[in-house]
């Protein structure tokens, strides 16, 4: 049995020194993960459409966690200690004790809830079809997440639509089925004639078709997961981890399958009803955009931007395998990929199996808009004694005790916490019901960029928002609660002040009230941004690259 000292050392080793993303950057590990995925993908084809590419990212992450835990349990004779409890870890320990973990099956509750969502959305969008004609021919279709569509301004693509060929430009996004989302849907519908919403394709027959495909998939999966030829795929270090992996896949399918089937059906119907020449994606990695790539027509050209940061071990990382550049694999590639910087291009080629020929460096149009809006905000700024702090994070349970402690340690500061969805907002309000008056939970529809403009200090875990805050000339504190951090440039360069407790974070916020220290930190960010991200005039440069590509293809 490990001594207290040994346990402490192991905890430090496993949570601060070792990075799970190493398992996604290391080619040997990626080959094992891909070999398992490849066999899995053969069994998730329904009516000729492979759902494998839509599930790959999540499965890769879970397989990486299994490998991470197993390796360290093996190397420490099972005495390894991990800071964060995880059902995956519990299942692995159960297997090593010679028992079977609990199976997690499809959730009927989730299916009924999503059915209610589809029917309700159908009712809301039915009116849209009656009051507004929808175009049959589109030259350029821009696709972005609903959270980047504010007041008709496309913060993801900027003014690019005005500078590329074509007379019909439309922006496709999602309906956020909440009272605010529905009101915004109709406001955009009447105010902006280029707004299209994917859920407008819902019909009662489509909803029935979604559930038929769901039943087919479920029956197919329930048969496959019992076959010995399938379970043998999951032998690692002479132990068969099939019960762990299958439990993971069950949870994954239970939470996402009906959503993915619904998206696939909606997009198929959208494409069937329209003639679309060029499709411009905010990125090629999320489910919505991948389905467009997987259902691409021969005459269509697809151009993808990079919303997220690109780094070794990031979402794009793949093994070096020629199969990955074939159609309908885990990496359905766009015809043209526009990245932020040379670092991103080099990473895509060396770590992500991208052909260099399709990549162009154009910058990020979103940052151009931020720079111009920031100037207007700075003119309106008034000096106040109260420090405004914005905390941006995933809605993890461990962030709530941190926020409560931070608010008590900084009674003179006003702390804003923004949730990512209406569900997360309700959960956060419940968790922070005893919060002091200087801690405010903001609803999901709050415009994050507008919120960042007003901040004196931005506290974040690893997120693209960190780079956005640097562009906005904000001071940043990295809250790192004993989690492995990915190999992003600002982490690798140790650019940010890293804190692991509310007390350390509060201390850094107080230091940032000193103008000289604040200026010193911002200068470091400025030099970093110039080295890694500063491709000024991204909107014009991206438009030029698109024009050049379209004229030559």
Low-confidence stretches: 1-18
Gyration radius (Cα, Å) is 24 Å
Shape: globular
- What is the count of helical runs? 21
Largest sheet: 7 strands, parallel
The pLDDT mean sits at 81
Q: Tally of extended strands? A: 19
The level of helicity is 40-55%
Strand order of the largest sheet: 7-6-3-10-11-12-13
Structural class: alpha/beta
Tell me the strand percentage band.
Answer: 5-15%
Distance between the amino and carboxyl termini: 66 Å
Describe the structure.
This protein has 553 residues and is α/β, with parallel strands linked by helices. 50% of the residues lie in helices and 13% in strands. It has 21 helices and 19 strands. The protein has helices at residues 4-17, 22-25, 27-41, 52-75, 87-96, 108-131, 179-191, 204-224, 228-231, 242-272, 287-294, 342-351, 365-380, 399-409, 422-431, 448-453, 464-471, 489-492, 502-511, 515-532, 538-552; strands at 45-46, 49-50, 137-143, 149-150, 153-154, 169-173, 195-197, 235-236, 239-240, 275-281, 301-304, 336-339, 359-361, 388-392, 414-418, 439-442, 457-460, 475-479, 497-499. The strands form 5 sheets. The protein has a 7-stranded parallel β-sheet, sandwiched between helices. Mean pLDDT is 81; it is low at 1-18.
